[in-house]
Amino acid sequence: MAPTPLYCLDKGENNLYIKRDDLFPFSFGGNKARKGVLFWEEFLAGGYSCVVTYGSSSSNHCRVIANLAASYNVACYIISPEEASEPTYNSYMMGLFGAEITCVSVHEVHDTIEAKLQDLRDAGEKPYFIYGGGHGNIGTEAYRLAYEEIREYEKTQGIHFDYIFHASGTGTTQAGLIAGKLISGDTKEIVGISIARKNPRGGAVVQESVDDYLSSQGIKVDSQTIAQNTIFVDDYTKDGYGKTSRDIQLVIQKVMKDYGIPLDKTYTAKAWWGMEQYIASHKIAGKNILFIHTGGTPLFFDGIHLS
Ligand SMILES: *Cc1c(COP(=O)(O)O)cnc(C)c1O
């Protein structure tokens, strides 16, 4: 797969660059598509017969996995918490792709997944299970590879990014970037703007994912080094997952008008707004800054009438 576009948006107090993972060429792109194609390689190699995953009705991950399943003509089962089941463009698409969606209370999600996997095995199927959000070493690997794309860009353009900012949710994307940094002995500050989770748990999950991944690759890095390289910022979560505010709506309008780039209130606009706040409060100036657009384009349309 060719690297996603990376280019300079603005030369001002800092030079702002963007990596357009929202243009990753499958199912409206985004980090879930980048992870999804790697999960699918394992699905194909393992001789599985169907796929099971979970997420809300607005989940980019579930849309991408349902799309992959449809394109391979494979049954896809999604367990979804009914507390977050309002219709969205992502959920319309999951329906279009023929995914079977089971809505249960959030407390029942875990047991419902177990029961579904058991039912499928009893029926002679070989189900492939993917954690919500594409969490796990394969998801981490996807962003370790994305980090390589960034390094390649730096090499050919003779530039060095001082900071990377991006939206951090399950922390898998951030873990992959940090793993890439540690493996290459690089010095970039990788700042994950949490879209919901708080510390200490949020940052701890990122560190565990980095550790898990590096161990799986036979690479030893001590936990203190991993901790020092994990900047998981929980100051900009607003009131939690999907919760927005006037300043975030204004960011969506501004970035669309100025650059023609769609952001969404749950992930990328929150991260963008958080990045602006972080740069201001840390008085960062004269630096090369890279924002990774992690996708979620369908969510832009869910929110477009709300401003
Ligand atoms: C899932 C998602 C994220 C968060 O990615 P994680 O790897 O779970 O941290 C960020 N942006 C978008 C658009 C997403 O869909």
Tell me the total number of β-strands: 10
> Main β-sheet: number of strands, strand sense, barrel status?
6 strands, mixed
Total helical segments: 11
- Tell me the overall shape: globular
Mean pLDDT: 96
Low-confidence stretches: none
Distance between the termini: 36 Å
Structural class comes to alpha/beta
How do the helices and strands follow one another from N- to C-terminus?
Answer: EEHEHEHEHEHEHEHHEHHEH
What compounds are bound to the protein? pyridoxal-5'-phosphate
Query: What percentage of residues falls in helices of 4 or more residues?
Result: 40-55%
Beta-strand content bin: 15-25%
Strands ordered across the widest β-sheet: 1-2-10-7-8-9
Radius of gyration: 19 Å
Characterise this structure.
The protein is of the alpha/beta class and 307 residues long. The protein is built from eleven helices and ten strands. The protein has helices at residues 31-45, 60-71, 89-96, 109-122, 137-157, 172-184, 201-216, 223-228, 246-259, 268-281, 297-303; strands at residues 6-11, 15-20, 50-54, 75-81, 100-104, 127-129, 163-168, 189-194, 231-233, 288-293. The strands form two sheets. Strands 1-2-10-7-8-9 form a six-stranded mixed β-sheet. Strand 7 (163-168), helix 6 (172-184) and strand 8 form a beta-alpha-beta unit. Helix 1 (31-45) packs across helix 5 (137-157), helix 5 (137-157) crosses helix 6 and helix 9 (246-259) packs across helix 10. The chain is globular and about 60 Å long. It starts with 5 loop residues before the first strand and ends with a helix. The model has no long low-confidence stretch (mean pLDDT 96).
